[in-house]
Amino acid sequence: MGDKQTPRKLFDGFINAAVSIIDSPVTWFRERVVTPNRESYPWYHQKFRRVPTIDECYTDDVICFYEANSQFKRDKAVDSEILAILRIRMEDCNMFHGPDAVAKCKSLVETYKEAEGNWFCKYGDLGFHGNVKDAYMKQKHRMVWERRHGPVGSGMRDAAAAAGDE
């Protein structure tokens, strides 16, 4: 009985030695180089400070305008990625459930439609070269429209109803 276990122990010892020869340098490098420096790398999930928005900038402050525009572009990129992830989740749910997707994916579809509407409300019709000033003017014009005619998409109120509200 002892004779049968001896080759097995030798084989296990050889495998453990081979694994430790390959694994030891990798483990050393990770523990001594990667992990201590990970916190100091600025490109690991870089967090930018929030800057003043365009409505808080003076009209002649070019630096403030540049910072607000950079913040706007970062926010647009993040919102676009969130929308893309929601779209992929909705499409995957529809593909997985097939004919039952209408009922089973209803919450995902509603979430995506709401996010899509919010994204278009903020960034839609600005084009590729739209900047923070264009978005601010779009928001201002939308608010004026809603004050005069009610929520966008509800139809225009007639002049008598608008006069009666004021």
UniProtKB/TrEMBL annotation:
Keyword Transport: yes
Main subcellular location: mitochondrion
InterPro entries: NADH_UbQ_OxRdtase_su10, NDUFB10
Cellular component GO terms, alphabetical: mitochondrial inner membrane; respiratory chain complex I
Subcellular location as annotated: Mitochondrion inner membrane
UniProt keyword Acyltransferase, yes or no: no
Alphabetical keyword list: Electron transport, Membrane, Mitochondrion, Mitochondrion inner membrane, Respiratory chain, Transport
Membrane topology field: Peripheral membrane protein
Pfam family, one: NDUFB10
Tree of life domain: Eukaryota
Family the entry assigns: Belongs to the complex I NDUFB10 subunit family.
PANTHER family: NADH DEHYDROGENASE [UBIQUINONE] 1 BETA SUBCOMPLEX SUBUNIT 10, NADH-UBIQUINONE OXIDOREDUCTASE PDSW SUBUNIT
UniProt name for this protein: NADH dehydrogenase [ubiquinone] 1 beta subcomplex subunit 10
Lineage: Eukaryota, Metazoa, Ecdysozoa, Arthropoda, Hexapoda
